[in-house]
């Protein structure tokens, strides 16, 4: 018996067409879940759809969605329900790295853009997903999972990253508030505080940053994307039902170094 079988479970993953989101989506697909990818890039959406469709038995759809636009979220939610029928799990993963500005150089535009995607986007996605989950609960079908991609920078200091750190600290607060408010519907909320993973975003960074991080991480290596598959399956499964309101570092020990 496979105790992590997700057959019949429907999950949304925002920004799920690449990086950490796609790694988590692979795990859900292999476990048999139905998956809706919400992301902006049509080419990457198509590639993710093809890859995930070959990994499992569940249905997979990919929808264009800009998480800073509530109308786009509403359309994606309606299309997801039309195809999958329900949503049990939401990974609010879509995010951007921030403006890279030192504090004396902060601009309102850079700050607002980072907060708009990383914080406001997650909150608006949760707004529409939880309306559906609460309606199900009121009809006798309680339960749901909210998992947001946060960052170790929400609890650590890094140069030229105040907007990003603030945006991720905000989703930690969103997580705790959601966990408390939604517990009556058996909806859990947790945040995953990721450390250094090699992605398209980190590939564009100064190579010295990666070298510095590798030396600072106690396990002396970046995170492995394969490990994210099982992590996602655990948090999407019933085996995490008693975990809520938590902000869990997934960082090879970086946050204690």
Automatic annotation (TrEMBL):
InterPro entries: NAD(P)-bd_dom_sf, Sc_DH/Rdtase_CS, SDR_fam. This is NAD(P)-dependent dehydrogenase (Short-subunit alcohol dehydrogenase family). It comes from Erythrobacter ramosus. One of its GO terms (biological process) is fatty acid biosynthetic process. It comes from the Bacteria. Transmembrane segments: none annotated. Keywords: Oxidoreductase. The lineage of its organism: Bacteria, Pseudomonadati, Pseudomonadota, Alphaproteobacteria, Sphingomonadales. The keyword Oxidoreductase applies. GO terms for molecular function: oxidoreductase activity, acting on the CH-OH group of donors, NAD or NADP as acceptor; quinone binding. Belongs to the short-chain dehydrogenases/reductases (SDR) family.
């Amino acid at each position: 018996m496979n105790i992590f079988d997700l057959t019949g479970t429907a999950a949304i993953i925002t920004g799920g067409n690449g990086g950490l989101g796609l790694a988590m989506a692979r795990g859900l697909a292999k476990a048999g879940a139905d998956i809706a990818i919400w992301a902006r890039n049509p080419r990457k959406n198509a590639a993710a759809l093809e890859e995930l469709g070959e990994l499992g038995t569940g249905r997979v759809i990919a929808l264009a969605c800009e998480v800073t636009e509530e109308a786009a979220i509403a359309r994606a939610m309606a299309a997801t329900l039309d195809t999958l029928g329900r949503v049990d799990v939401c990974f609010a993963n879509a995010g951007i790295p921030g403006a890279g500005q030192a504090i004396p150089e902060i601009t309102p535009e850079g700050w607002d853009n980072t907060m708009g995607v990383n914080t406001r986007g997650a909150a608006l996605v949760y707004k529409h997903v939880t309306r559906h989950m609460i309606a199900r609960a009121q009809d006798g079908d309680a339960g749901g999972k909210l998992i947001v991609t946060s960052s170790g920078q929400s609890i650590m200091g890094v140069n030229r990253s105040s907007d990003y750190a603030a945006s991720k600290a905000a989703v930690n607060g969103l997580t705790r508030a959601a966990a408390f408010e939604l517990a009556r519907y058996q909806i859990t909320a947790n945040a995953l505080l990721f450390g250094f993973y090699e992605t398209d975003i980190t590939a564009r960074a100064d190579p010295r940053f990666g070298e510095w991080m590798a030396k600072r991480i106690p396990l002396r290596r970046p995170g492995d994307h394969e490990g994210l598959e099982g992590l996602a399956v655990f948090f999407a499964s019933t085996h995490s039902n008693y975990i809520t309101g938590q902000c869990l570092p997934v960082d090879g020990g970086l946050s204690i170094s």
